[in-house]
């Protein structure tokens, strides 16, 4: 099969923005900030959010206040400023009324002389003034006047005119490309080619119809679906292993089935019904000879850890090893403590703070198999960490890890099964686009006997009332978290805020207090948490270092300061630190007395419900469908041209299209397959293809 377009021909699109004429260092940086990337392709995929049609003329009389207008007018008078602070005023008319053009800065003498007829465009205010018109051209030269103008998302200091020339040049860099879509599909949808569609959006001669964006959205979705399909095939192609209980075949060993029983007994509670159900799903995967890739979604406090532990024991029972990776050292250490307490087999923690002899011992134990259970942070996926036989990798609170990290731990073993756990609800469309290679399980509900968490809101001015409540709770033996937000850009200032709060509370609550924040030495912070967990302290002042997963069932009160500064999902996570035991629990949200309407609504929602899925939904709505998982936090790649929420129809189409293509041509060697390789490269999805063919 001939190569149609060599992939290197796309290289000019992957050159830096600075390779475009007129884009220097400073402009390049500004552009990169707005585009979310610093290559030519990032500019091309930075599509306008709307357009202004400058060809539509109106009259001064017909213009609505605050409307962006194009007028053909005659210059009447020019009034120079009397003082340097005043603007130059140019009064114009079109016979239907008068209008003032206002210039605070330099004003274009050449173009505006009394008696001249000009075309002007700009936004008219409610006093019939246009400050600094966007465009001015002689009326007899309408060709100098723009037609349709792009309104790109910008950033402070960056203007549309900055982008215009670089964009035009970028468009010329697109090589001639073969069509990767089925011609019948294009006909049916009325879609033009890739380059034509991009040009229609980025250099429009007329207001673009929805078709070009749709076509490009489909390109992006298809690239994603093909990448995922390739990944899925890769996973399936590697055989898994059937983890069976060795006791069944090798009765000389202690009946290892009892590992789970012993662990549950040490834990002190039975599995809940949902836990049992989910564990059965996992067991079925583990004992099947294919590789498991399962996502376990369960709300905060639903009891995912225990499920993970029992799944890991299945690997151990089969004579192999298991590992659990957590996003923070606090959480990893907590898992390590839990395992040490309830599991009858050796386990060890690996984190960057584990050094020297202990590190050597742990690495040795993982490598020779004498430590069957590994617990750790991302230190686990580093080079040099080896396992004798890693059968199961668990990734806890996955939203904190980058997308690809979820597979890295699994790559530490030959046929490693992977279980990913998350409390952050992942919307259905995102499951389809980002998690399609995974099976999913839902852990609904919480362990029995839990009472609802009572959530209340308080203005900062009534912090005294809150302190009184905390004081009563502490006198009654309760354990209380007091969360201070990270508010400023500066860690030093944040630290000062936490320490100041600690000091002011210490005046009142004295010795039975602890302090935990991210700038502490690991050991100091660990000690503070351990003291709190053991009840040696009753009030823990902390930053969001406790946000994810911290589990002290005896804690029953959480105070969150400046709650309005947190995302709803984060507040839900924080609140989930209480309500983990049988005691009635309370969450007190303190807010700054000035509260915006949206902020108020968000806090109200939290008062109303404890359902993480509902909270995520509403949060999505309140934020106008922005970035649900907090992309910054989660590292999930965003979409440039498609919106999986609103383009769901296209998404399903792309899913079917990708499956059909890969079924026929999994190696992408057919004519269409080769064109698809280019598509993957354009959308940065070609790693899926490359890894497939390298390993
Ligand atoms: P998450 O799903 O948020 O990770 P955890 O695994 O930390 O939740 O569990 C929340 C709390 O519920 C913990 O204190 C845990 O010990 C407790 N728990 C888990 N399973 C059960 C159970 N079956 N019965 C009673 N308590 C349980
Ligand atoms: Mg957890």
What are its keywords?
7-stranded parallel β-sheet, OB fold (Dihydrolipoamide Acetyltransferase, E2P), single chain, alpha/beta, binds adenosine-5'-diphosphate, 695 residues, Rossmann fold
Give an account of the 3D structure.
The chain has 695 residues and is α/β, with parallel strands linked by helices. Among the domains are: 55-145, Nucleic acid-binding proteins (OB fold (Dihydrolipoamide Acetyltransferase, E2P)); 256-443, Rossmann fold (3-Layer(aba) Sandwich), CATH 3.40.50; 453-609, P-loop containing nucleotide triphosphate hydrolases (Rossmann fold, 3-Layer(aba) Sandwich), CATH 3.40.50. 39% of the residues lie in helices and 17% in strands. The protein contains 24 helices and 21 strands. Helix 19 packs antiparallel against helix 20. The chain is globular, with a radius of gyration of 31 Å. The two termini are 23 Å apart. Bound molecules: adenosine-5'-diphosphate and magnesium ion. The site of magnesium ion has 4 residues, from helix 10.
